[in-house]
Amino acid sequence: MDVATGPSASIGTRVAEERKLRGLTQRQLAERAHVSLSLLRKVEQGSVPASPAFTSAAARALGLAPAELLGQPYPRETPTDHRVFSVVPALRRELTAYLLPSEDDASPRPTAQLDDAVAAASKLRHAVDLNRLGAELPGLLAELRAAWQQTTGAERERIFGLLAETYYAAGQLASKLGYTDLASISVDRYEWAAERSGDELAVLVGAYRRAGELICLDDCGAARRLLDVARSRLEDRLGHADVPTLATWGNLHLKSGLAAARAGDRDGADAHLAEAKQTAERIGVDRDDYRLCFGPTNVNIWSVGLAVEMLDGTEAITRAEKFTLPRSAPRERVGHHWIDLARGYLLHGDHQRALATLQQARRTAPQQTRYHPQVHETVRALARADRRRTDTLTHFVGWLGITA
């Protein structure tokens, strides 16, 4: 198999091949992608891992979807892989059929029971239990589709709110499995349901999600404008806002910080982080409004991630040393933290701690870690740097199913 197009190819290898197919020099692609020539060369050579910002910029310049450079979805190599990925066709069908009339004999559970079922699905999402989440989602979405068609008034609005939350869970599952097209469709469906829920905050969470899509597509300017407008709808009520409103406000600032960091605006990223931190301190506890886990813990996790986005591994490590994750923190967020912090250690030059931190990510959320493209990039960089590869690293490379 050609290494440039095979499943084990790195992002840099794919970038180099796609660039050559288009007859572009490294300088020409660097100019189109608005990245430094030095960085492009290092990524293509494999001496520097491709960051999410680089990948999005290169994909846009090459006229590709980011997933094409990431090589997602990854090949299914184990029985667990096949079980996890087997849900995708059913999920795709339900996301496509969202407006179709339900089956004549469809008899959804009462709204209170559906509320419990959606909450259980969101709990599986936070636990990154992709097997059980995937098994639940298509049927739950179909049941909610029948429910909104059979209800009216306030009850129908409540069903739409539950449907929006379930579409969010579906998008998270699709994203973690590397099906970015399905993740994007889930954002469309979320916005459609949220608009019908009668819940303004749910609508603004839709802006949060849409901004994430724009950031991944290297349109940080549009994402920042969208988030600015979303925050403006809350600004006048902050003095007497309830906690869900404050949590939404804080989350919008966190996403704005990501858009700023990806755009190279460190001052902007730090300003948004400071606003989110102040809001979290005002709330004082970790919350899960709209399944966004806002509070002091998540702001701390984001602070590390934003430093890594700005390629400042030393700052990421410094920030991480200032807090301890509580046992109650969702596995999804804790696993994400370890993945980000491993990137921070790699940028800092501490390869041993980078690998140890990835092992923590694996223990916390194994499926999330196995399918995360930044884990693959970090491990490739570690393997290239460690010519006398340790047994631990060799085992981790094999567990990921890559050829570094």
What does it look like?
This protein has 404 residues and is mostly helical. Helix content is 72%, strand content 0%. The chain contains 22 helices and no strands. It has helices spanning 11-21, 26-33, 37-45, 52-62, 66-70, 79-85, 88-96, 111-126, 130-149, 153-176, 180-195, 200-216, 220-235, 243-262, 266-283, 296-309, 313-320, 331-348, 351-364, 366-370, 373-385, 391-400. Helix 12 (200-216) packs parallel to helix 14 (243-262). Mean pLDDT is 94; it is low at 1-5.
What is the element layout, followed by pairings?
Layout: H1 11-21, H2 26-33, H3 37-45, H4 52-62, H5 66-70, H6 79-85, H7 88-96, H8 111-126, H9 130-149, H10 153-176, H11 180-195, H12 200-216, H13 220-235, H14 243-262, H15 266-283, H16 296-309, H17 313-320, H18 331-348, H19 351-364, H20 366-370, H21 373-385, H22 391-400
Helix pairs in contact: 1-3, 1-4, 2-4, 7-9, 8-9, 8-10, 9-10, 10-11, 11-12, 12-13, 12-14, 13-14, 14-15, 14-16, 15-16, 16-17, 16-18, 17-18, 18-19, 18-21, 19-21, 21-22
Observed structural traits:
404 residues, mainly alpha, 22 helices, globular, disordered N terminus
Compute the number of strand runs: 0
- Categorize the overall geometry: globular
- Strand-and-helix sequence, N→C? HHHHHHHHHHHHHHHHHHHHHH
How would a crystallographer describe the biggest sheet? none
Compute the CA-based radius of gyration: 21 Å
Compute the separation of the termini in Å.
15 Å
Total number of helical segments?
22
